[in-house]
Amino acid sequence: MVFLSLGHLIGLTATLAVFIAVTVHAARSVRSAEGFSLSGRKAGSTMIAGSIAGTCVAGSSTIGTAQMAYSYGVTAWWFTLGIGLGLIAMALFYARPLRKSGLETLPQFLGKHYGRAAETFASVISSTGILFSAVANAMAGIALIALAFALTAWQAAGVIAALVILSVFFGGLKGAGLTGLLKMAAICVALAAAGIVSAVMLVRVPHFSATFPAAHWFNPFVRGVPETVADVVSLIVGMICTQTYIQAIFSASDSKTAAKGTLIAACISIPVGLPCVAVGMAMHVAHPEIAPIFALPMFLVEYLPPWLGGIGLAGILFSVVGSIAGLALGIGTMMANDIGRGIFRIESGRNVLWVNRLTVLAVTLLAMAIALTNVGSQVLDWNYMSMALRGAGVFVPMALAIFWPGRLSARWAASSMALSTLIAAIARFVFRVPVNPLFVGLAASIALVVAGLTTGARGESEAGE
Is this prediction's pTM over 0.70? Predict the structure, then answer.
C-alpha cells in the first residue's frame, strides 16, 4: 500500500480543487447540444490539443509505460510513440477533410458517403469498441485508487465515476478540453521532475551494463518484431478511427486549426513516455519486490517532494478520469446524433443535449459495472478488442470516403463494416487465432471492399456496353 503524507494530500486536493473549479466554469457556458459536444465549433488549436491529449495520454501512457519499462526497458516507449504517429497521420491527411465536412460524428461522415445503414453500423461498432476501452481504463483506475487510498473496489469505482460525470456531464467537450490541459500540465511538471530524478538514479547504478544488458533493456524490439509492429499499427489505426479524437477535430474553428491542434497533441504525447521509461527502469533496481504496475505512483510518492508528488498523483488520476470522460463523450455524441436524431428523429436541441448527457452517464456507470464484475480478466484483452472494433471495420471504408470517394457502393461498405468486425471478434474470442485481431478484421475488410470495387467496376463496364 502507498501511504500519503500531509504534503501529498495538500498537493492532491489543491490540484483537485482547481480541476473542479475549471469544470464548473466551463459548464456555465454550455447552453446547447452543439456547445456541449463541439464547443460551439469555436475551439482553437490549444483546446483541441487539450481534448485529444487529455484523452489519449491516460493510465496506459503513464502507469502502463512505466510498468512495461520496469520489465522490458526502452521498448515501452512504443506506446506513446505509436499514439503520436497516429495523431501525426490524422493531422496531415484526415483533419482537414473531416473538419471541412461540417459534421459532428464519424458515423455521420460515413453515412454521408455510404447511406443510413453504414452510419448505424459505424455508430454501434465505434460505441462498443470505445466502451471496451473505457472498461480497460476503469479496471486500471479502480485497482490504483483502491490500493493508494485504502478503498474497496466499489468505493474506488464510485470516486472515478463521480469525477468523470463532473468532468463531462456538465462541461461537455469544453470541460474535457480545459481539464485535459490542466491534467497535461500536472503530468508534464511531475514527469519532468521524475525523469530528471530517475535519470540521476540510473547514472548512479553500479555496474550499469551488467544490470541492464543492452540486448534486452535497450532493444526496441525485445518483445519481437512482429508483435511490436502489430502493436504500433493497431495504435495508429485505432487513433484515426476513434470518435473521441475526431470529435475534437470537428469542434475546431476551421480545418487549419483542426490540423494544428492535432499536431500539437502529437508533440505532447510522444515525449510523455520517455520519463516513464526512466522511472520504470530506476524502480526495477530500487524496488525489485513491487508489482510493476505500481512503479510510477510509488516513485512519485517516495522520490519527489510531497507537494509535487501529490500534483503528479492528481495528474495520473485525471489521466484515467479524462480518458474515460473523453471516451464516454464520444459515445454520447454518436448516440445523440446518429441514433437520437437519425433514427428516433429527435430534433429539439435541448433534447439532443440531454440524450448526450444521459448517454455519458450510462456509459460511465456501465464501464464501472463491467470492470467490477471482470476483476480477474486481462486488461489487454479489452484493449485489443477495442482496437479491433474501432479500426477493423471502419478504417478502409473511411479512407476510401476521404481519398477515393464515390467508388464503393453503400451496400458493400455497410457489409464490410459489419462482417469484418464480426470476423475479428470471432477470430479473437472463439478460435483464439494468434494474430492481432485488428489485422484479421482489416484483411476481411480489404477483401470485401476489393470485391465491392470489382463488382462496381464490372457493373459500370457492362452498362457502358
Answer: yes
